[in-house]
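notes to self, project folder thing:

trying the whole complex as one job this time. last attempt i did each chain seperately and stitching them together was a nightmare. two parts in total, labels are on each line so i dont mix them up again. if this works i'll redo the older ones the same way
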Amino acid sequence: MLFLSQAIGRPVRDQNGDPIGKVADLIVAVGERYPPVTGLVIATDGRQIFLPWTSVESLDVSGAKLRTSILDITKFAQRPDEILLRADLMDKQIVDVDGRRVVRVNDISLDEVEGSVRLVAVDVGAAGLLRRLGIEGPFRTLGRNLKVPLPERYIDWEDVDPVESSIASVKLRVPHGALAELHPADLASIIDQLAPKDRAGVLASLDDEAVADAIEEMEPDTQVEVLEDLHPERAADILEEMSPDDAADLVADLSDVARDEILALMEKDEAAEVKELLAYPEDSAGGIMTTEVVAVPATLTAEQTIDRLRDLEPDAETIYYVYVVDTDERLVGVLSLRDLIVAKAATPISDVMIKEPVAVGVLADKDEVAQVVARYNLLAVPVVDDEGRLEGIVTVDDTLDAFLPTSWKRRLPRPFSRSSR
Amino acid sequence: MSQPAPAAAAKRRPIIRRLPGRRARFAASLAVLGPGIVSGFADNDAGGITTYSLAGAKFGYDLLWVILVTQIALFVTQEIGARIGLATGQGLTGLIRERFGVRWAAFAALTMIAANLGSTVSEFAGISAALSLFGVPVAVSSALAAIAVITLISRGSFSRVQYFFVGIGVLVSAAYIVSAILAHPDWPRAANSLFIPHGTFNGAYMLAVVGTVGTTITPWGQGFIQAYVVDKRLRAEDLRAERIDVLIGVAITNVIAAFIVIAVAATLWTTGQRDIQDASAAAAALKPLAGDVASTMFAIGLLAASLLGLGVVPLASAYTACEAFGWEQGVDWRWREAPAFYGLLAFFILFAAVFLLIPGLPLIQVMFSAQVINGLLLPVILVFVMRLAGDKRLMGELVSGRINLALGWTVTGLLILMSIVLVVTAFSG
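result (full assembly):
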């Protein structure tokens, strides 16, 4: 194993052992799990010359040894899938996908894998930082005597996602594949840590649904920032993917002009739902409810209801409760998924449903809604208007917000919150 | 799924703008007071008031030219800082790390920490000096200051109270202006000194020059404007507006600083009280307006200015250092997630609080010395700033033009020269 910092600046000798320059940089071809080293950049006589890796016999802490004594002084031209380890990666910001953090590269770890020297990990720990500063030795001794090991932290290259503006010369389109696999909450946390410029690339690489899920997990301030940076068409597409209550909360924070423009770009149905939710006060049941609710007529049988659920499922936020309405859309009962499944196929649901279910009015305070949910141990509570018509549901996760303290972030001067970098 | 083509993305209109209502209300009011204006006000902190007072008492109107020159230099450096923020969307020490490597970044971060440690001590000394006017012993006041700053930062209430401090700052500044006018200063002499350097060159004079520069153009202020521009998510097309904002901030600082010097010159200097030893002597400059309550007014002004500085400087320092080393930064991390950040924050506050416990510490001198240290360390940071500003690859279309670069390097060169002269005169005695 070799750290890049241990090789940089070391002498390069030709096959006769004569020094011809110093190691300036290494080139790797990205794409594989562990990118192989494909070339060596040598600093000699104030110039930089490039050698393909096939001409290099060995590279270690004592320097590089070449197989040849003839130097081809062709100028190095970077191919699209190649990066210079020192110039492009050292000291730059990367996303640690596994740790869900944005960190800086302190050093780069190379090792022999499958017969070739490859980039295997980046060092983001204190040990790497001290090594770069040239004071690792004294600290190691100190740590040994105090029996406190130096904190080391490495990130496997597989878990590294580049931050684009930081690694400017990475011309290849960054796939951000690893990010797409993350849980939306983790993705939100990473996007939050990225500088605004870097968010664009990440967002462009993800599909609308992934972005929508991540946005739902963000702080309101960040939500608006992220939306600001998107093309209005894309912003509208993403809002359509969000649940209407979250979309409405977000749209409510936009200026009138922007709100009208975005709503006009959205599909008619989705825009109508959002507009409807916008009419309610923010802290009322109507303000936190979602309109995506499973409602079925009382005339169905259990089997017909289950068929209906199979059709609706992709869109609805929760299907643990099935609400039963009359012909005027008035809420008359509720079925749990369990009731539905244990009922015989031909049983009318009006026989198994709970009649006159607990419900809250659209203008009920959100604290009151939370109390109802807690008292009756509900996963969701239906919201009805003055006439008793089913308008939506408030799910238990949305009521939790009422009890959680506002995070520090929103109360602090912005230059010091995490998202600024 | 529709992804905008690159060309369309480049031409997109920034149509979605934040609504100044509900959650964003504070941000919106800050948008009126842009980063230039905020940092302009923060320049007139405890160290600023003290340094201008000392300069006015010792040299009368002679140093007014330094204030004018410093303000021009401040405009140049702040404009460049804002521009780097606009172009790169990154903080200062992070950029230094990327462009010059880890050793230079460590050097820059340590320089910042040293300068900011001085500033933090200075703010603590300001609080103690202010409270000493009410007879509060230093040990008590430094403990109170530590509690106050920890509460402000940890409870997250700083963003709410900072307007209160800025408000008091405005009132006290106005008090200096009125006091200056009521004291019947020598206006022709003041005007003359503003444009033509006066006075005899010696060690003390040089020290006052460096202190005045150091309290106005600060290493942390340079990092602050850049971080603020980034955080406000300003874009390249906002450059014009940002210049105006910086200009207004600089003008405010300039006018207030000049009037403090004039007020002190017209009162203390004219009557021969040329050495300010404690806060009560400095407060005498407000007597033409406030009479017997001059002390109280001065104390309140100093207290507000110190607290405003304390809400910003330790945070900014911890932030800067963590940015350079890639450590988690910001108060929305937990203690265990960001030990370096909170450790630094605690170190700053404890160091300053304990430092003040040294018996018989001359508070006014401590504040002044901190500004001199800031002035001496400033060129280090400015060299980095200027090199970044001239980097075409980094700055793109916002790269500093020839005139801009020449101005910036002239300022940096003058500051380096000034620091060398000070060190040489100090050693040659």
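what i see at first glance: Chain A touches chain B through 62 residues (CB under 8 Å).
need to look closer tmrw
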